[in-house]
Amino acid sequence: MTDANFSNPLEYYATQGVMTGPGEYGFMLADLPRDIATLCKVVQGNLLHVFWAERYGITLEERQKETLQIRPVSRKLERIWALKENGLSVALPLEKRQVGNCRDFATMLCALLRHIGIPARARCGFGVYFEPDHYEDHWVCEYWNATMKRWVLVDAQLDALQVKALGVQFDPLDVPYDQFILAGQAWQDCRQGKSEPEKFGIFNMHGMWFIWGNVVRDFMALNKIEILPWDWGWGYLTKKLDDPLPGEQDLRFYDRIVSLTLAGDRSFSEIRQTYVEDDNWLPPQDVLQGVPADLV
């Protein structure tokens, strides 16, 4: 999908992208509610987080986890349609919900919001609310609240069970930016010695290169390309976690990308220009596999 709009971020983020377009399954998004709380319940009623399944009393089979590899929302809708043949507003039983992760919850909510014309974008970074003294690899959705005239972070993954289990004290429909740390902010804080890189990551993966990987994912999401958390091995996603940091010239480039992701709408034109003029951001064909041809 080519979008030459470099000047109006609200118009840009109010339209679908390569990964969020529903394709031929757009009919499943008919009659969606417009309030954020209900839209989050719609997402939650169709997805089941892979790491939380047992908390809901569900033991996943390996075949159920295959849906974690599905990138485009259109293909996710195809699988959901095969299970129930009605709109998304009708919740699936827990055992039939499509297995996903935080990226899927964020991207699905983003797709629903764009479908009804509300500017939205997935954001990649780190959640403070999963483990003490740790910044967990995480995605949320950011939407434009026209009433408040500001962007608002929403964690569509956090239903009542998870809020209680995690002891979340904030409103998941308005996540504070000190509870979800944008990837660029994490990079900047670590570069300035304000935070420890080893506290950012997931499982045994952490450190500056892990943070940089999330910066790349966040930058691409700002260009409406929401790749998987483990997409790796091309363009600016080739560094291994134990590689030494590059020289000062490369670090200045990384710092520039970080500043663009943190500046948001103030640097929207530069974000778009930087993306379209550098082939290192272009996803390989296997990343776009499954995306309907009319969306590419």
Overview of the structural elements:
The structure is a single chain. The chain has one domain (9-295). Helices cover 32% and strands 13% of the residues. It contains nine helices and eight strands. Strands 3, 4, 5, 6, 7 and 8 form a six-stranded mixed β-sheet that branches. The chain has a two-stranded parallel sheet with strand order 1-2. β4 and β5 (150-154) form a beta hairpin. The longest helix is centred in the C-terminal third of the chain and has 16 residues, at 248-263. The protein is globular, with a radius of gyration of 18 Å.
Defining traits:
single chain, 296 residues, alpha/beta, two-stranded parallel sheet, 13% strand
List the helices and strands and how they pair.
Blueprint: H1 9-13, H2 36-44, E1 47-49, H3 73-84, E2 98-100, H4 102-115, E3 120-127, E4 135-145, E5 150-154, H5 160-166, E6 180-182, H6 183-191, E7 200-202, E8 205-206, H7 208-222, H8 248-263, H9 268-276
Parallel strand pairs: 1-2, 4-7
Antiparallel strand pairs: 3-4, 3-6, 4-5, 7-8
